[in-house]
Amino acid sequence: MRVRPAAAVLFFLALTPAMAAPLAPTRSGWPTALILVDDDEGTIHTIISDQIQAFLRDDGETAYSFAAPSLKLYFPSSDAFMAMVRNGYQPIYRARRFSFGELKQMDGKFVQSVAIVGPDGDSWRAIYTLVRQEDGSLKIISCYLVKDVTA
To answer: Rounded to 5 degrees, what are φ and ψ at 72?
Structure first.
């Protein structure tokens, strides 16, 4: 399994202190449980699908709108964000097709696996991490991409 360099950057971003704050232990010492609302899985699928469709249209503003504020600190404009995606996430940027795998809840985050066939026909696995924002919306805080050697 090979991790793309840009993917390592985004994976690192998910571990930064700004994103760890919502995971702080409660008075009991245990993190609060994440409650999966019936509609969360559909919402997560829509967010990821809409972002991939925006990439295919080169619609940077729409694609960027799905990124969490903490991610936008590292990519302060849609142009910077799209440059990172074009350079490090070509299989997602120009996906031929994709399908959703397992959705997990871990440490207050949603982790969604997505099987992707890139523009060259190679198979990839994208692991998206989303977090609920204060306004109740879900935003992408990271995505890492690995070559799918099982396909």
So the answer is: -65, -20
Question: pTM of the entire structure?
Answer: 0.76
- For the record, the structure tokens of 109 come out as 């985050």
Average pLDDT by consecutive 10-residue portion of the chain (151 residues)? 43 38 40 56 98 98 98 97 97 98 95 98 98 96 92 60
* Alpha carbons 23 and 38: distance in angstroms, whole number: 22
User: Which residues, 6 or more positions from 5, have their beta carbon under 8 angstroms from its beta carbon?
Assistant: 88
Q: How many C-beta neighbours within 10 Å does residue 17 have?
A: 7
Long-range contacts of 28-36 (CB under 8 A, 24+ apart): 31/107, 31/108, 32/108, 34/105, 34/107, 34/108, 34/109, 34/110, 36/105
User: Helix H segments across 57-124?
Assistant: 60-65, 69-72, 78-88, 90-93
Question: CA–CA separation, 25 vs 123, rounded Å?
Answer: 38
